[in-house]
User: Fold this.
Amino acid sequence: MNYRLSQCRNRTLFTLLGMLSAWWLALTCTTMALSINLTFDPTTPYFDPNGVNRTNDVQAIMRAAADIWEDIIEDPHTLNVTYRWGDLDGNMLGLDEWTWPSGSNRPNQATITFDTHEGSGGLAQPWYFDPTPRDNEEFGMREELYGRLSSADQVAWYNGSPPEVLEASFQGRAFANVGNPDSNFDLLSTAMHELGHALGVPGTENGLGDGDYDIPVALVGGNLMAVKDDHGHLLIENAAMYSGLGIGERKQLSATDVLTAAATASWNQIDLPRKDFLGGADWNTAGNWIGDRVPDAEDDVFLRLGSINASLSANGVAKNLRLNQGARLSVSNQTLTVGKDVSIHGVSETAAELSVTTGGQISAGNIFLIGNGKLTMWGGTVVANRLEFNGFGSEYSGQFSMLPGATLNVNRLVGFGDTLVFLGNLG
Assistant:
């Protein structure tokens, strides 16, 4: 069953008091990033379908949803949110009512209501309260990229020329698990969605009257593109800001969700948690990444266009790094530090390659050569806990080259079927 996720109501404050309040907040606010202040109104209780009082359990979920948005939007702004339970009409899961000061395109006050009963006065709404809301281990999450959409969906959901690697959605279905996420509505998805309305995806068109949201070109590598509007929601069915949510479904914020908010609320400092390299030669140039920002140590990073041939002009970091479809990355006289996993993918002639040359260093938790992905050491140093070859039968096997002058320091080598010859130094 797919329920309508939200409805939005908005009011603009044109009063002198509203203008003075906004002016005073601007003078007194010292935050350098988005700050979402949450106030819980417990007046209306919520009992789950088993009769258990879960009224207060919404607080941890709402805090996690606010933290996710705060991690992404780094422009200075304060949003005050009151949230509560209530018996909403029809098949509504959530309702967001927000206001903004005159002359601003950013709401500063919002009230969010989560539904307590199916329909009006029906059975208790079945909610999933994730005990670990900052990870998605109960869900099989997957990305949808613009370039992998059908041509019909591309035309139906976007205008212009979006990048092939633009993330359209990041969605997953629940596994059977403790708390039954597979048979309940995900409260975290709903909370992120409702906050998204208060942060820029409005209840009406974006004011241009053309039925879409024009994405700032700096955030998408200079591409001219827009995301089509559906009465204050996106048309992309798996996107967080789509108007519906299914039982057992999680929708995390995708690049398209965030960039749509940026288009309407003029957010300029965007830190996407999953960053895709668009092109160019330099890892350290912000404009070469979707979101116009170089990756940090908390980001999952992707180089997945065969046309990419990049290098580092300064040190680089990532949480996870994935190269595929023939992309190439070279590290020379710099250090690339990946906190968790590097995976280098390849099939036949489309093998991706990560290389290190004299003076360069790659430091990672684990390095996986998948298919015939390549790790080439012309010099320099590679330090990792684990280096694993994961080929596809006898046809493809990871390719590792290590020339004199290079140093490999790993705790474990896995997956080799033949004898290895190292011409460099083993640490």
